[in-house]
Predict the structure.
Amino acid sequence: MQKIVIPFLLASVACAPLRANPRGLTSAEVLAQAPDYDWEEIPAEDLLLADTPRGRIVIALVPEMAIHTVDNVRKLARAHFYDGLAFIRAQEDYVAQWGDADGTKPIVDAEKTVKAEFSRTPAGLQFYKLPEVDTYAPETGFIRGFPAARGHAEAWLVHCYGMVGVGRDEAADSGSGSELYMVIGHAPRHLDRNVTLIGRVVEGMEIISTLPRGTAEMGFYATPAERTPLERVRIVADLPESERPRYRTLRSDSSSFADLVESRRNRRDPWTKHPAGKVDVCNVPKATQRID
């Protein structure tokens, strides 16, 4: 037992301090005042960019949580597999999903299936732990700013709004990344450790969340005319440097991140009359900014 617990503890970052947000900062004020050294740039290799007629969507990938699946998603993008596909589903208060509606487009230069990566060992991960008790996991917190959970032997990403997962059939290892879904409703945490999560939408969530809802079963579109096409999907690192959008995320081991958590746990703005004094892992705002 000690061999499991020791690396789990060594990888921890201190719990969010319960300091009641004495300065009364809002989340926006915390992010605006965070010094540059509290941020880290997201590598261009970890950014997936999708152009649609409704606008641009950018997804930040988390390879350390699903290395083989993320690698296959990169291969699919570089093989132009996603180009010409579409959003085939938008289920109210649940998820939107893109993929090959007819299931006829061949997968080349990538794997047709990838072994499920629902979780991984917590060893070596820097985990910012929240002190609140969670319904679905022994501990919740953040890994590189992404909402996550942890037990003694495993760590995993969790299904908060905007998270991106890999569609699969009944078999756990049947997904490849050819179908991706994005959470657009109340956090469906029952999906945790049942689907491989690969990242989070950092730009364009308003496009995905306002897609017309599908009328067929599970929110699938009944006709092709209802679908929103994917024009091009690329890895940002493959773009000319002058055309690459850049993003940075607030480091979860920074004092600014602790302030961000407290701004939601103990809101001191004039409108709030009864601060909750607690925070759920999915209620901490996304701490990502576009670098102009």
Notes: The chain has one domain: 41-254.
